[in-house]
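In the laboratory, one determines a bound structure by crystallizing the protein with its ligand and collecting diffraction data. In a computational setting the workflow is compressed into a single prediction: the sequence and the ligand go in, and a structural description comes out. We illustrate the idea with beta-D-glucopyranose.
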Amino acid sequence: MNIKIYQRNYNVIELLVRGAGALLVIYWIMPWRFASHYEYIQRKDIRHELIDQVTSNISMQRLPPCEYNDILANNVNTYRTQFREHVLRGEEILPGGEYFPEDCSARFSTAIIVPYRKREEQLHAFLIYMHNYLRQQRIHYRIFLVEQYDHKPFNRAKLFNIGSNIAAEFEFPCLILHDVDLLPMNLGQIYACTQKPRHMCSALDIFRFTLPYRGLFGGVVAIRTQQYRFINGMSNLFEGWGGEDDDFFNRLNWHKIDICRFEPSYSTYTMMKHKPEKRNKDRIALLKSGYKRFLSDGLNSLIYKEKERRIHSLFTHILVET
Ligand code: UDP
Ligand code: BGC
Ligand code: MN
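The predicted complex, in structure-token form:
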């Protein structure tokens, strides 16, 4: 059979062969763009990779240490049963959105930092779902919402830098940098830090549960506070959508820090639907020249104004001008 394209006749077989050839060349030049298969930590190794480290108030508890093997081994799907249901027992969550189990001493203290502006409905669903989910993990955590309280383009990375400073005031040794619209679907994706910074949402529903490219390091990531400080945090210069997470990945690489992921069935997330944000047209250029600024643009050049701090029942709310 022949097909006519732009006045030329092509044989179907010839077209298929050419197409396959082109794909092979692209794969050969840029293999990282095809990452549906990626290296990951298997379930049996997860516990060993986690860093046991807590804030001083938790370390002073006189309780038996909490166990996590059942949570990790069973990896229960939590999505359908709890999504948006009000099953909070509010009295267990401390003011500011903090929680720790009372019958055992948590082994992990995690600050969950959420960059935010004008996503009220998502925030509501996020808080209810996450407190239900996280409480089942027997960890010590606190949710910090960093709201950009100005009219400039949204600066996700800068809000993470600000959040990391506030989490440090509270002595948290582990940071989870978390989009407000992402919900974990399996309990085994434990909200604790691994030796290596971890990309947690590598099986995301909007990407048909596959990883679009190996260097994707956005959405939800876990990183030890000391590592975040060591690489000078994230860039403050990415305004608007895109690129800041890729720059973060480049920073880690540049500092010879490898990343990790858990196996795909532990890394399933769902994204609450929303309209796409306005892209930052400078993002590609900023990304390319990022290498020159890793040491000068980040935590050490961070300037902002904290307008207010509010202690809500389900989260600590920090309003900032960027
Ligand atoms: N965000 C926000 N308000 C905005 C833009 C972004 O709160 O106007 C935060 C929010 O946490 C969101 C994250 O930044 O989940 C990433 O932005 P977005 O969801 O638009 O990016 P995507 O990952 O969907 O491409
Ligand atoms: C952008 C990232 C984004 C990713 C996935 C990339 O092109 O630079 O910021 O997270 O796409 O949407
Ligand atoms: Mn989103």
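The chain has a mean pLDDT of 93. Keep in mind that any predicted model is a hypothesis to be tested, not a measurement.
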